[in-house]
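2024-03-11 09:14:02 INFO queue: dequeued item Cysteine synthase, len=302
2024-03-11 09:14:02 INFO validating residues
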Amino acid sequence: MNVVYPTLEDVIGQTPLIRLQRLLGPELEARGNVLLAKLEGNNPAGSVKDRPAISMIRRAEERGDIRPGDTLIEATSGNTGIALAMAAAIRGYRMVLIMPEDLSIERAQTMKAFGAELILTPRSGGMEYARDLAEQMQREGKGRVLDQFANADNPRVHYETTGPEIWRDTGGRVTHFVSAMGTTGTITGVSRFLKEQNAAIRIVGAQPQEGSRIPGIRKWPQAYLPKIYDPAGVDELVLVSQSDAESMARRLAREEGLFAGISAAGACCVALSIAQRVENATLVFVVCDRGDRYLSTGVFPA
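2024-03-11 09:14:37 INFO prediction written
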């Protein structure tokens, strides 16, 4: 009997969709609402970004744009960098990651563990400066930028995998999909799939309030708005404060046993606010990553 064993990249995706048991409370549950969390932290490198990372590399190979041994460059706020570092290790690439210096030490250490090289940029420049530097390095011939912000293989993988998984695992009952917005790949790809199944499904994006710095959630200046973003696929944008997102991260851990990252908690805040004004709704939000990536930030009590 021949046994075919999966490789690491074969187990990316097919993440659990679980029902939260306490956060809604009896009143909102009595209205027929269900709050579901898509556990993307269960991916091998620990986040939703595992999907586009392997997709962008594999499809660039198929087109002949890159080949093993090449140098890949990417600006990242953390999770994409970790996922790309893993994917590059799997498929044999040198990975150079450009990252603002104020992001959590756990993320930087994890990227290095996968063999990636890090370039830290000033906090004041934010992700915009990091993206500009990546493009500059590509122009100088120092490597190939995959560009998660403009690469159609980012939302494509969510259209092909994340969206269908949500539709299947809810039995087609999903009424609201909530996602933090960073590169916008997740919300763009999932929206496209779910809207094709049922145009009435509400797609809601979580963005940070003015002055809030929530890792993984961005409100981009117009000049830096991701090219992959399709605003027609998003029905509502909801602003989340940093304090509310951090508080929700602690609540998820203590009340649900769900150790989630800050952007996931922000999306949960939005989903919970929607649940307070609807009935008979099946609300799905993306748990982008795990809380252990944020221990050094002080969000969780020591």
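2024-03-11 09:14:37 INFO annotate: Residues 24 and 272 are 7 Å apart (CA to CA).
2024-03-11 09:14:38 INFO item closed
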